[in-house]
Design goal:
Blueprint lengths: L1 E3 L2 E4 L4 E4 L9 E10 L2 E8 L6 H8 L13 H11 L10 E4 L12 E4 L4 H17 L1 H36 L1
Antiparallel strand pairs: 1-4, 2-3, 4-5, 6-7
């Protein structure tokens, strides 16, 4: 997906917000969902521009704030996550950084990509959520409920047929 929304910074409040296209500065973020677990998604983001708080504001603007983001995030969820996992920062990690045209002393990094796996602390949260989903996957729960309803209807239909057959048998006996 793509988030193409202008951003404007309020220097007085140290806060950035999405604004109208004729205001602020253009900001473009590309995203790809890598994994969806329960109500969470692990996404890969590519910044096409480099604005202050761009990832945080863009993700929040599409109702997918970063876990642990105390400024633009879901404050209640952050409290739950902090209590359960002791996470005191954003669930944000630079998995890879690619140097296209570095300047100055970084010139030697041109066309190089540095990869850094998800830190153990964040991977543990992801793993626990995945394990929890296996136990309580909402799709599986809904399928089970639908199957129960279907069986109830079938049972009801069979019961009605049995009642009709009993009535017919009684009439034939009389």
């Amino acid at each position: 997906g793509e988030i193409n929304k202008n951003l404007i910074k309020d220097d007085n409040k140290s806060f950035v917000r999405v604004c109208k296209s004729n205001e602020g500065m253009n900001a473009l973020t590309l995203y790809e969902v890598k994994e969806h677990i329960q109500n969470y998604s692990l996404v890969s983001l590519t910044l096409k521009t480099g604005r202050t708080h761009q990832i945080r504001v863009h993700m929040s603007s599409i109702d997918h704030p970063l876990i642990g983001d105390a400024k633009y995030g879901d404050f209640e969820l952050n409290k739950e996550i902090k209590k359960k996992y002791h996470l005191n920062h954003q669930f944000l990690h630079a998995y890879s950084i690619c140097f296209i045209k570095p300047i100055g002393s970084l010139k030697y990094l041109e066309n190089k990509t540095i990869i850094s796996p998800l830190p153990k602390e964040l991977d543990k949260i992801r793993e626990e959520q995945a394990q929890q989903e296996k136990v309580t996957n909402p799709r599986d729960v809904q399928k089970a409920k639908d199957r129960i309803e279907s069986l109830k209807k079938q049972n009801y239909a069979v019961s009605k047929k049995i009642e009709k057959l009993k009535a017919k048998l009684v009439r034939n006996l009389v």
